[in-house]
Amino acid sequence: MIYNFDEIVERRNTNCLKYDFAAERGHRPDVLPLWVADMDFRTALPVRERLAALAQYGVFGYSEGKESYFDAILSWFGKHYGWQPKREWLIETPGVVFALAMCVQAFTAPGDGVLIQQPVYYPYSEVIRDNGRRIVNAPLQLRDGHYEIDFADFEQKIASEKVKLFLLCSPHNPTGRVFTRDELLQMGRICAAHHVIVVSDEIHEDFIWPDHRFEVFQETDPSFRDFTVTCTAPTKTFNLAGLQISNIFVPNPALRRKLRHAIDAAGYSQVTAFGLAGCEAAYRDGEEWYDQLMVYLKGNLDFFRRFLRERLPELRLIEPEGTYLLWVDMRGLGLSDAALADLIENSAKLWLDAGSVFGPDGSGFERFNIACPRAVLRQALGQLEQAVQAVRGVSKA
């Protein structure tokens, strides 16, 4: 079937975090939200039909995934990435962030150093700090509009801070980097040399832009499987975050036992029946929707890029290699973080993710979620343009 991604789906008054909780989150109620990473599109029809049938069935007891569940996952990963994980590696969790927190608890002790690459998805810092571990930052370096890894700094931080665990964001949120095979190999070899466990968060793996290729970290070198936990989920790809389902693959039996023990200690067992059903239907029958989604998102990216070039030249798009989250350098406006926040919220009336929440290396940047109908994106950028015009007028005066 042909999907209409231009359709405006009214999400207000549905207990939607993105649209209904501005005031509760300290924002003005009339902001247009392009922040949290879910989409404003209805998911694939086969997923909706499967969930509707389950709702009609009316019994929602404890559930587990059977062979058909794993076969759907295996088929998706095999087709898209040539990856054939084994079923015994799989641990189902209610989300990737939950899995990250459990890995921090399972593989480190209070006071241990955990490495991240800021600016990075802010729950990474939260699950480290809130579990009494130390954040060790080996920041990505912005050079000529492109983020790169400083491998000397990466290794030095691991060695000097006695790092036990590395949380790898691949593809990287918010910078949009899709790390090359050589970059992944170099990071993996450094971690292997220093006995660092790698938790690779690959939730954005299905959003890769032309001329770039996603590589499953643990498959770049078979030896990496021994110290890697790979976090995946259908939730970003198919807009299923509310179903609370992620698939975590741990090839090493000893690491798998430790992770299961941490999850058991947290009191968690089965994922939801709706999560299992939605995941299986998405991976099995959602390809047509996904293909059309990627075409639409590419159009949104082209529109966004052209708008900035023609009408907001002070702003600089960090050209994304993956994800539907755009990282924009706003420093050309010459504003402090506080003044920029005021412009975004009170002049443009937008709700974005400020770059500073991703770490100090994000100061002066904003993250935009473009997974919305183009009319919404056009409205948001128009509001931003009007706000920037006011700043231009002040600077000229």
What does this structure look like?
With 397 residues, the chain is an alpha/beta fold. It has two domains: 130 residues, Aspartate Aminotransferase, domain 1 (Alpha-Beta Complex); 240 residues, 3-Layer(aba) Sandwich (Aspartate Aminotransferase, domain 2). Helix content is 41%, strand content 15%. It contains 13 helices and 15 strands. The strands form four sheets. Strands 2-10-9-8-7-3-4 form a seven-stranded mixed beta sheet, with helices on both faces. It has a four-stranded antiparallel beta sheet with strand order 11-12-15-14, covered by helices on one side. The longest helix is centred in the last third of the chain and has 25 residues. The protein is globular and about 65 Å long. The chain starts with 16 loop residues before the first helix and ends with a helix.
Quick summary:
The chain has 397 residues and is an alpha/beta fold. It is built from 13 helices and 15 strands. Helices cover 41% and strands 15% of the residues.
Structure class? alpha/beta
CATH topology of the largest domain: Aspartate Aminotransferase, domain 2
Work out the helicity level: 40-55%
| CATH architecture descriptor text of the largest domain | 3-Layer(aba) Sandwich
Question: Distance between termini?
Answer: 55 Å
Give the overall silhouette.
globular
* The first-level CATH class name of the largest domain: Alpha Beta
CATH H-level homologous superfamily name of the largest domain: Type I PLP-dependent aspartate aminotransferase-like (Major domain)
Mean pLDDT: 97
Low-confidence stretches: none
How many domains is the backbone divided into? Answer: 2
Question: What is the count of β-strands?
Answer: 15
User: In what range is the share of β-strand residues?
Assistant: 5-15%
Sheet with the most strands? 7 strands, mixed
Strand order in the sheet with the most strands? 2-10-9-8-7-3-4
Number of helical segments? 13
What is the string of SSEs from the N terminus onward? HEHHEHEHEEEHEHEEHEHHHEEHEEEH
Radius of gyration: 21 Å
